[in-house]
Amino acid sequence: MNERLPTPYPELNSVLKDLAESARNILSNNFIGAYLQGSFAVGDFDAHSDVDFIIVTEKELSNEQVNYLQPMHERIYTLDTYWAHHLEGSYFPKDLLRSYPKHGEKLWYLDNGSRFLIKAAHCNTIVVRWVLRENGITLAGQSIESLINPIPVEMLRMEIMETINGWGQEIIANPEKFNNRFYQTYIVLNFCRMLHDLHMGYPGSKRTGADWAKTNLDPSWNGLIDRTLSGRPTPEIYVRQPADPKDFESTLEFVKYTINKSKQYDACK
Length: 269
What we know:
By secondary structure, this protein is an alpha+beta fold. It has eleven helices and six strands. It starts with 9 loop residues before the first helix and ends with a helix.
């Protein structure tokens, strides 16, 4: 662990130290480094933020290594601290991290609120690479800057455009899949953030995106955004509760609005 504390929360720092040291012990020569990315890396976090990590490996995890990592993650989840339930991240082979992501290529991934690794493409994005290279915090191992090539801004914007339109169309086509309190807030904050990132040319946090949206978008959305910000805590509970019908209807309209806004940006380039 670096002398600089990675976060201002002592209990979280202890969890991160446990995570980095345990992963290094299990992976041995396959371990390159452990890093914080996401809101804790960009410096705009609060007590409800996800704890986004990346562990870089020399090569793909073996079945034996995964079998040792699974009980390690389950043990960390059972630690007597809120933060142990909100780790989220992936194991990245170094060659894949250095290359640009291929659609759908999956990594071993720990979801927020989960005890076990699964295969998912969640972290295999340009945005994650950008934040990791420019703002990542080293928890253990090699400096991250040497592991990721500089990313052109237009490549970042292209991915954001694809996500706004692709995910947006999925939400509009199949809204009931997302009709719970967690997804309702998650969608609004992420679409605010993506529009912010598209216009500014660099990734920000959910809160930065929400504040930017309240200043730069039609003010009629401000009430929805404010209610969304106040609804961020306890995602593990909110995912089991239906969304407020009016806010969910407004959220679907906000997705359509964001898609149109992103197209306006593309046309004005």
